[in-house]
Design brief:
heterodimer; A: 173 residues; alpha+beta; PH-domain like; 2 domains; 4-stranded antiparallel sheet; 3-stranded antiparallel sheet; 5 helices; elongated; B: 16 helices; 21 strands
Chain lengths: 173, 497
């Protein structure tokens, strides 16, 4: 197997993207995530209940219990993954690029060079607003797959980040 | 000397009125047909034939008036280095686009437009959120004049040479390739029939089940030997159906090919390519070299016999329209020499053919095999484990999917130089994607826990036309490439579009 560095000249000591250097998200954002799970749970439970009430013949317990168990298991699984995966989320702003990492079972980190940012927005959902949180959305020309969304920032942090990035974009034009 | 002065407000072609009328009628019908249906069937008044006739007449008159008003209030002109379009009679809109934001100007003609000698003109602009301008009933000669003026103005915008934009500059065009009817035949036969065939087969199986039920009913009525044979001999019927549907898919492919690529021409201009093709739907697309983000080309078992490649110019497009817009800029039936010429135009001297290939790790095979082979079988087991045939076909499926996965990893490699990258992929067909590194918009590093144990990772390189994926390479290499790509993009002074 040919050695990669023999074929291509890479500048020595390139700056690395190390997971440890990332800043984590605000803990209050966990509330937003769990409320989402709660909503899903309520929808599923509500659906099941409605089905039981309105079905022509009440399904026997031998069907209901496994389904309820399955739903419960799914919810528990999602909750555990969310809880354990939260510390893995983070963002990193360097001189020339901004990155966002996430993922428990599949670790993913996306980096966008500052000179490729099209525009930046600050958004707030209803719940986030109540908690004093915002998210910064970074748009690129690469479409949704390369756009970055950094949630779980305090309103202040989000505005500061937006101002910083916007300043960098106009600096390039 | 110009006979058409585009600095004066110019309307669409009068012949286009018919088109506007038809278009409005179509929009109306699409919007209101449920209501019409309900009215006709519920309301007594509307049952009367005369009422229906009067209603239709009123409708037509209204549509005609709308079409005329729309036509009269729709015009455009060129002023102060801007293209200005005014439209609307109730709600007046003015759209203006500075020339330097215009990327390219394309035209399309459907069958009716061809008969009327009008075109649809599309103006492509830079930027992701911008809406493109479309003019649907433009006189063909006006369209040509507009295209040439915009092209000329773009070229001389740097040198600020106004005099030149008045000249009828013959833009030097070189015919790179043209498809003859024989070429079309070759292309049609070498299309990916299996996929189309499978889709038709899937639907066909539904129909087959219905047919089988019918046969069994009829077999009781007519105890004809043939019918009993057919309905009992599932194998014969299935084989017949399979062959039938494969043939149908081949015929459809051929038809589609001929219609889409009729009289296909690829022409080269100093800074752009131009593609012209189509029978009932003619397209005329201009591709500025700068806008090309990636070049993709593909060959397959049958294509290889003919020695042809199917090329796609991947351009920067905003996310919403990506699928349909990218349909327009492909060149089928290219020979190797065409491919080399285009690669040279877009990427310069070949940097990559001497760089060693880096293959995806063999662990990727396992993942593919699980995805294509084991998971479907495991999902099917609870439903079919009692059937004898399942226990024969399941191992066969596993074998087939293993072979398919093997074909994939044999072709999964990439070559990378300081400035460019080319990846290779495909199972039965072989596809390549080549891109200049400074066109990257973002990079993504992915690692599942299974990959982490083996020190492997995958990379996604995103550009304005899509994503190039490098799956299952060494983690250390992936990180090196990740950091290098960021570095390269950040120091690059070249524009990506």
């Amino acid at each position: 197997m040919e050695n990669f560095t023999n074929a291509v000249l890479i500048p020595e000591n390139l700056p690395e993207v190390e997971p440890e250097t990332f800043t984590g998200l605000n803990r209050k954002y966990l509330i937003v995530l769990f409320v989402r799970i709660l909503i899903i749970f309520l929808l599923l439970a509500g659906g099941m209940t409605a089905y039981i009430i309105f079905a022509e013949q009440t399904p026997s317990w031998s069907i209901l219990i496994p389904i309820a168990a399955a739903v419960l298991l799914i919810i528990i699984f999602i909750s555990v993954v969310t809880w354990l995966g939260f510390p893995k989320k983070g963002y990193l702003v360097r001189e020339k690029d901004v990155s966002f990492q996430r993922g428990l079972i599949t670790y993913m980190v996306t980096s966008v060079p500052l000179n490729r940012i099209q525009h930046v927005e600050v958004n707030q959902g209803i719940l986030a607003k109540m908690l004093g949180l915002s998210s910064v959305n970074i748009y690129t020309a690469g479409g949704t797959s390369s756009d970055l969304s950094i949630p779980g920032l305090t309103e202040n942090e989000a505005l500061k980040l937006k101002a910083f990035l916007s300043g960098k974009i106009s600096g390039h034009e | 000397m110009n006979s058409i002065d585009l600095s004066q407000p110019t309307r669409q072609s009068p012949r286009g009125l018919i088109l506007i009328f038809l278009f409005s009628a179509q929009k109306f019908i699409r919007a209101f047909w449920p209501i019409v249906l309900v009215l006709v069937f519920q309301n007594e008044i509307f049952r009367n034939n005369r009422t229906i006739l009067i209603a239709v007449l009123i409708l037509m008159i209204l549509l005609i008036i709308h079409s005329i008003l729309f036509y009269l209030n729709f015009f455009f002109y060129l002023e102060d280095d801007e293209f200005i379009l005014k439209k609307g009679y109730l709600r007046k809109q003015t759209l203006s686009i500075p020339f330097d934001r215009i990327q390219s100007v394309n035209t399309k003609q459907n069958l009716i437009q061809q008969l009327l000698n009008v075109v649809t003109l599309e103006i492509d602009t830079a930027g992701t959120a911008a809406k493109e301008l479309k003019i649907h009933a433009l006189d063909a000669s006006v369209s040509n004049e507009l295209q040439e003026q915009l092209q000329a103005v773009k070229k001389h915008s740097q040198s600020n040479d106004e005099a030149n934009s008045q000249n009828q500059e013959t833009i030097k065009e070189e015919l790179l390739m043209q498809l003859s009817p024989t070429d079309l035949l070759k292309i049609g036969i070498s299309q990916n029939h299996i996929r189309a065939g499978l889709i038709i087969l899937a639907f066909g199986l539904q129909i087959f089940n219905q047919v089988q039920d019918v046969f069994e009913e009829k077999a009781e009525e007519y105890s004809s030997e043939f019918i009993e044979f057919m309905s009992n001999s599932n194998l014969a019927l299935v084989t017949f159906m399979v062959i039938f549907f494969l043939l149908v898919s081949i015929v459809f492919s051929l038809l589609r090919t001929v219609l889409k690529y009729f009289d296909f021409k690829l022409l080269k201009r100093p800074e752009t390519y131009r593609i012209e093709s189509g029978l009932f739907n003619k397209r005329n697309v201009i591709i500025p070299h700068q806008k090309v983000q990636e070049l993709n080309w593909e060959t397959g078992p049958i294509k290889k016999i003919f020695g042809i490649y199917h090329l796609v110019f991947k351009q920067a497009v905003s996310g919403q329209n990506r699928q349909q817009r990218q349909q327009l800029v492909d060149a089928p039936g290219c020979l190797a020499k065409h491919l080399e010429k285009l690669k040279y135009d877009l990427f310069g001297e070949d940097q990559l053919s001497n760089v060693p290939r880096i293959y995806s790790n063999s662990f990727y095979f396992r993942r593919l095999w699980i995805m294509f082979g084991w998971i479907p079988v495991l999902l099917a087991t609870p439903f079919f484990y009692s059937e004898m045939i399942f226990w024969i076909s399941a191992p066969l499926w596993l074998l087939a999917s293993a072979g398919y996965s093997y074909l994939i990893i044999k072709k999964r490699y990439f070559r990378m130089s300081n400035n460019q990258i080319r990846i290779s992929k495909g199972a039965i067909s072989h596809k390549w994607e080549q891109m200049e590194l400074h066109k990257i918009q973002a990079v993504e590093f992915k690692q599942t826990i299974f990959q982490k144990r083996r020190k492997l990772a995958s990379l996604d390189l995103m550009n304005a036309s899509g994503t190039i994926t490098i799956p299952y390479i060494e983690e250390k290499l992936a990180k090196q490439i990740y950091n290098y790509l960021l570095y390269h993009t950040e120091i690059s002074k070249e524009g990506w579009m």
